[in-house]
Specification:
Length: 287
């Protein structure tokens, strides 16, 4: 699970250092409202809808967006602890405009339909921690299989191209375990300020992911690295030993949670850098 207990103190620290502005993490956060992301150059026309995916545990409410014509590589998006909300719909749509068929899920569907965080990325972490505690390795794996199967049932998803998956915060381990759950189908995995990627147990997400044949992008927040400085080394050594391509980088000046545009520590410059690396990964692995 992500180290969200430090979230508010990190926000204050990075504001004081001038690394993010009050506007970035405050003015436009009300009720989950996201700041506008930069437009996609050459964006394709997309079709978007609210969908329901049947899983072994019930019905998951999700957001699906894809190019309006043709079939594209599928991508499964695991949100952060604040769940499915306008910010992640915006991120999913932007990815679809870049040429992918994107399913953004509500990981907390067993307990509550989206929105699950009262004020999006500005919601006090104590309000959403109980939701996070309802998930575990088993739910990660069963949900991953159901969501990938659903994607494969859509005409807009190309069956001859690998699927990508990306996770933010607690979604990082979920993305890793998606590759482990459907190793023959997932070709690319991305983690942004993922929490709990490396654990001292045989079922650690990084060990499970290393048994796949996927390519990886792992973007680490600088304060997460300060708290767990050995994780990046373990990740590099594990994936190198497995012979898996993995780009692993600590993003200087980026606090845990820096990518979603409604985050209280949103860092646009570093978020755009991470986004550009994601597109490079998918361009190679999902072609």
């Amino acid at each position: 699970m992500c180290d969200q207990d430090h979230f508010e103190s990190d926000r204050r620290e990075f504001e004081a250092l001038g690394l993010v502005t009050r506007k970035q993490f405050g003015i436009m956060l009300g009720a989950g409202m996201a700041m506008m992301l930069p437009k996609v150059a050459g964006a394709v026309t997309v079709t978007e809808s609210e969908v329901t995916v049947t899983t072994p545990d019930g019905a998951a409410d999700c957001y699906f967006v894809h190019p309006a014509s043709g079939a594209a590589a599928g991508v499964l998006v695991w949100p952060d602890i604040f769940g499915l909300r306008p910010a992640f719909r915006q991120m999913g749509k932007r990815l679809a405009e870049s040429g992918y068929s994107v399913l953004v899920v509500n990981p907390f569907y067993r307990t509550k339909k989206a929105p699950t965080a009262e004020s999006g990325g500005a919601t006090p972490i104590q309000q959403v921690m109980p939701l996070a505690r309802t998930l575990n390795e088993t739910t990660h794996m069963t949900d991953a299989k159901a969501f990938v199967a659903w994607l494969d049932g859509q005409p807009s998803v190309a069956k001859n191209r690998k699927i990508g998956t990306q996770g933010y915060c607690m979604g990082g381990p979920m993305a890793f375990r998606t590759a482990a759950a459907v190793p023959g189908r997932v070709g690319a995995v991305a983690s942004f300020h993922g929490g709990g990627l490396v654990a001292d147990s045989p079922n650690s997400p990084h060990l499970q992911a290393a048994k796949t044949k996927a390519q990886f992008l792992i973007c680490i927040a600088s304060n997460d690295d300060a708290r767990s400085p050995n994780d990046k080394t373990v990740l590099k050594e594990t994936f190198a030993k497995a012979g898996l391509p993995a780009e692993i980088e600590v993003y200087d000046g980026a606090a845990h949670g820096w990518c979603p545009p409604d985050s209280q520590v949103y860092n646009e410059a570093q978020a755009e850098k991470a986004w550009s690396r994601l597109l490079v990964l998918y361009g190679k692995a999902l072609a």
